[in-house]
Amino acid sequence: MLDPKILRLVAITDDAEDRRATLADRVAAAVRGGATSVQVRLKSATSREVVEITRAIMSRVSVPVIVNDRADIALAAGAAGVHVGEADLPVAAIRRFAPADFIVGASLGSDAELANAKEADYVGIGPVYGSDSKSDAGSAIGVDGFKRLAALVAHPAVAVGGITAARALQITVAGAAGVAVINAIFKTDDPESATRAIADAIGK
């Protein structure tokens, strides 16, 4: 059974090709700063690269590592789970071949995604505040939109999209089990300090 504590502060990797060589180092820094899990999101990398990078990250951190989009890659890398969106393999299909303890998260940004999201172990709801790191993220739904969607599922809900240290407390007070962060961690020169600021804000 999923421990909601791992969702308190999810560090989602950025996709800058010129920084992949240092990605495992930056992820390890984020975990030292308080990240409770890691999501490997590398949209422009090959399948082989994602497996290799995921394994490198797993060798450096003790928190669960989840792969974005691809359950097959997550399983090949030995990751703890996968996070899927509307265009990816449905959660119910993943359940048919994944181990019982394999974590499956799903994105939820509208009512159209509810059926798939309800099958997942947790949901990532957003974009709450808008996002410039995901071109397909859609319009910001705001805190009220987050609360409405979270009330429709029985699983822990993680807020994603435009999360910063200044906004993190507001959304956790609104009922989020945690926050998922890309830019406010990995677009900085000091991922450890940036993550610690968010962790401090939500009282992790």
Overall pLDDT metric = 94
What would CATH call the homologous superfamily? Aldolase class I
Radius of gyration, in Å, reads 15 Å
Work out the strand percent. Answer: 15-25%
Give the total of beta strands. Answer: 8
Specify the helix fraction band: 25-40%
* Secondary-structure element order, N to C: EHEHEHEHEHEHEHEHH
Strand ordering within the main sheet: 1-2-3-4-5-6-7-8
CATH topology: TIM Barrel
Tell me what the structure shows.
With 204 residues, the chain is an alpha/beta fold. It has one domain: Alpha-Beta Barrel (TIM Barrel). The protein is built from nine helices and eight strands. Strands 1-2-3-4-5-6-7-8 form an eight-stranded parallel barrel, surrounded by seven helices. Helix 3 links the parallel strand 3 (65-68) and strand 4. Helix 1 runs parallel beside helix 9, helix 2 crosses helix 3 (71-77) and helix 7 (165-173) runs parallel beside helix 9. It is globular and about 40 Å long. The mean pLDDT is 94.
Short summary:
37% of the residues lie in helices and 17% in strands.
List key phrases describing it.
204 residues; alpha/beta; TIM Barrel; eight-stranded parallel β-barrel; 37% helix; 17% strand
